Amino acid sequence: DQQVKQNSPSLSVQEGRISILNCDYTNSMFDYFLWYKKYPAEGPTFLISISSIKDKNEDGRFTVFLNKSAKHLSLHIVPSQPGDSAVYFCAASARVFGTDKLIFGTGTRLQVFP
Amino acid sequence: EAQVTQNPRYLITVTGKKLTVTCSQNMNHEYMSWYRQDPGLGLRQIYYSMNVEVTDKGDVPEGYKVSRKEKRNFPLILESPSPNQTSLYFCASSWDFGVAEAFFGQGTRLTVV
Q: Cβ contacts (< 8 Å) between A44 and chain B: which residues?
């Protein structure tokens, strides 16, 4: 049962345009969400996060939007650059009955072409 | 430089031969975790540790053991590896769980034949 879903395995965007990566979750107990970026042969690196008490968080070219009623979050990259080409994972966390849960999605491979 | 160091980076072993993948962090983080990454399944948590001598199972703990005797080290132990444990493994650390960015190691690609 995949509690965090990234339904688009890949996305191709032209340089300078907007990239929108989507993530859906099923467990309403999740209260914090994070995005990680991963280049080949490297570990994931943190990109941006959002608490469930917010609906938007910005950091430079990156903005994350959270729609709790739809259990949906998205990552917007504007403008997209070739260096943004990587695999992006969304993750959701919750503390349930004293157990820490951090669940990752399956990832979306973003390719930004010139 | 803040970093999480895993060793080895690549390992090929045979079924049943015990192995240990080491993980060390230099940021004095309390939380450490192990994940495996498989095609189409993303990153799945194996075990995590909230502090020295405090560990707990993640989503896929079967066939793995961990220990946290020191704050900086969190080794992953496969007592009797099997081919279904062939995967890419990542260790991560953070100052808090789930709400703070985690720093990941570069990964260990394990093949069990």
A: 43, 90, 102, 104
